[in-house]
Each structure stands twice: as structure tokens, then as C-alpha cells.
Specification:
Elements lengths: L2 H18 L6 E6 L2 E7 L2 H4 L6 H13 L8 E6 L3 H9 L4 E6 L24 E4 L3 H17 L1
């Protein structure tokens, strides 16, 4: 199993934690040198915090662990394309790579609506790869929203 699949599988397990809490099932894990620095899942509803996206929670967790607000050399794996807020935070944290599963055509900031990671005006650029376990992530999201519509 490739490292990307390994870590995205972990992010999908975290997304299921979000779903169990009634949150949109998105999970994220930050890895460096084969070790988990931080992880998180969506929790804006339960935390009454619009910034409590999976990526932000993973960043907060990793930065506390590393005792640093920057994470050079780290890779973030996330089950859904980051939004504008999360993409900006990842740039500020100096994350090296972002690997995401499913595209987010309405709010995605890693190529779908915006391309923050390759914006020439910024002083840090993030290497980005899309599509690792995309179908599994998209299916998890589809099933979640299908169930919500039935309520």
C-alpha cells in the first residue's frame, strides 16, 4: 500500500468520527517522516466554531505537539478539497504538501473555485495532489447528505 493510500485511509477513519458526531464527514491527518503530527475531523457544529474544520483541527493539534506554528516538511491528508480558510491556514503553516481525496466544486480552494496553493502573490506554495481514495470519500459524503435529506 502506498503511503498516500495509507494516510488517506486514516483520514477517512477520522471522517467517520465526524459523521458519528453529526458533522459533515471530513477528516485530516498531518504526517512528517512517517509519523502523525496531528489529526482532526470536522467539529464546527459541536464546538459552535465555524473555524473547526478538519484541517484546522489537525493544524492546531500538530502545532501544539510541535510547539511551533509552522510545520515545514509536513504533509496534510484530507478527505475533501480544502476551503479558502483552510487553504490559507495551510499556507501560513508552511505545510509542504496537501493530498486530498474528493473535489469540492462549490468552495474548493485547491483548484476547483480558487487555487490558493499556486497563487504567485504568496510567498509560500504548497504541492497539491488530488484524487487519492476520491470515490470512497465522495461516497461517504453522498451517503451522509442523502441521509440528512431524509430527516
Amino acid at each position: 500500500m502506498s503511503e498516500d493510500i495509507r494516510w488517506m485511509s486514516h483520514a477517512l477513519a477520522l471522517a467517520q468520527q465526524a459523521e458519528l458526531q453529526g458533522e459533515v464527514p471530513v477528516g485530516a491527518v498531518i504526517v512528517k517522516d512517517g509519523q502523525i503530527l496531528g489529526e482532526g475531523w470536522n467539529q464546527p457544529i459541536i464546538n459552535h466554531d465555524p473555524t473547526a474544520h478538519a484541517e484546522i483541527n489537525a493544524l492546531r493539534n500538530a502545532c501544539q505537539k510541535e510547539n511551533n506554528y509552522r510545520l515545514p516538511g509536513a504533509t496534510l491528508y484530507v478527505t475533501l478539497e480544502p476551503c479558502l480558510m483552510c487553504a490559507g491556514a495551510l499556507v501560513h503553516a508552511r505545510i509542504d504538501r496537501v493530498i486530498y481525496a474528493a473535489k469540492e466544486p462549490k468552495t474548493g480552494a485547491a483548484g476547483s473555485c480558487f487555487d490558493i496553493f499556486n497563487t504567485k502573490a504568496l510567498n509560500h506554495h504548497v504541492d497539491c495532489k488530488q484524487g487519492v481514495l476520491a470515490e470512497q470519500s465522495a461516497e461517504l459524503l453522498r451517503d451522509f447528505f442523502r441521509a440528512r435529506r431524509k430527516l
